[in-house]
Amino acid sequence: MxxxxxPTPHDSQGQVRTFFHWxxxxxxxxxxxxxxxxxxxxxxxxxxxxxxxxxLFLFMSQVITGVFLAFxxxxxxxxxxxxxxxxxxxxxxxxxxxxxxxxGSSAIVIxxxxxVFQTFFFGAYKxxxxxxxxxxxxxxxxxxxxxxxxxxxxxxxxxxxxTTVGTNIISExxxxxxxxxxxxxxxxxxxxxxxxxxxxxxxxxxxxxxxAALTAHVYLFRKAGPAGPYIEDPxxxxxxxxxxxPKQIVMDLIFAIALLTGLAIxxxxxxxxxxxxxxxxxxxxxxxPEWYYLPAFQWLKYWQGPTAVIGIMIIPALLGAMxxxxxxxxxSKTRHPLKRPISISAFAAVFLGVxxxxxxxxxxxxxxxxxxxxxxxxxxxxGKFMALKFEPELAGASLLSANIALAxxxxxxxxxxxxxxxxxxxxxxxxxxxxxxxxxxAIHKKYDHAKILDLLKNPxxxxxxxxxxxxxxxEPEYEALIAHMESLK
Length: 489
Hints:
- By secondary structure, this protein is mainly alpha-helical.
- It has helices at residues 9-27, 29-37, 50-70, 80-89, 94-121, 130-151, 157-170, 177-185, 192-224, 247-269, 294-301, 308-324, 326-329, 341-367, 369-387, 397-407, 409-420, 424-427, 449-457, 461-465, 475-487, and strands spanning 40-42, 241-243.
- The protein has a two-stranded antiparallel sheet with strand order 1-2.
- The relative contact order is 0.10.
């Protein structure tokens, strides 16, 4: 019986060609690849053109890392912070993935600004590219929206209070401001409904909108064609062209790899911090947004009272309309930046003004001793929390304590007293602890019954410094409250 001969390399290559011929016959992939890779670039490939592809790679990185984070994340006020802490402290490579995702949002803003600079100074919006520019502006706004909605998800002090300020600012919009605020928050206060709505916006609605706008942007770009260098005619290119493949695609890949490598190195050397869990009862916390929202934060300080609508609505709306409508009123064919002094000067003035506002916000914080001291204290609290080992919720401290209380009438009465005395505002639901007050879980292992009673009646110096006052109760009520505290196991 003869043994079949193994396929020769020639036969293998033929099988591969047959497969691709079969695939192309059914999908037309060969034509699509030729259209994508053989696009003519007037004047040839340049490093100035890598920012658009860089943004696409960064967005895909955000999608991939976001999916991994979503495997562990729970969008509720009770569990969001714990799940993020678990990712950062326990999950293998969790801190790195979270850092790449968090730093990636800043990287997108930076590359987006560079892309706008390149497009503006090259006059690449001129010619039949009005809709292309508008689609790019829509993508800019959607990316900023992604950053804003993602900021709340860790549910730490910084995220909670910065988002509270942001949603309060939205309420200043005339006529519909309060409606928009309630829509985002799911009510009048920040809570689980707020978190779940921000999660839906961040994970579903905004990414879907970005994919749609990105598709439109790419289609319009291919329809209009690359603008080429600023010496090129925007309507009738005359410079010799060069295909997108291989030179430009290699440049784009090098830039994308450099971006992702830089994010990975930064995330490994300096993992993204997570602060203590959000405590709405904290009155001393000073919220500050991410660096790219600092200029807006500083700008709003100058517009208070009746003039707020001017600074919040009218001026930004006018600047936004001028920016989006740029190709509709700047119709000259002149693209060289030195031959467009008015538009270049106006753009530079606005940009420098934005930079100044961001720097001024830092200066104001550092010049005020009270604010500077508070900011240092907040940073120290973040460092302390990051240094702590991860503490699981132990099947839900609140649920566990409630079940124990139901089995113990005295503890059940004490639970009512605990809530009536607003003890949870400092010690958290179920006594799990907050930055304002320590955890009461297993307090019976640290202090005996008599010592707990004495501390309730006569708080020590450390407790008084934290805002603890003497608890005024009857003796039976003291016993019930201590029974509840001792049930927090």
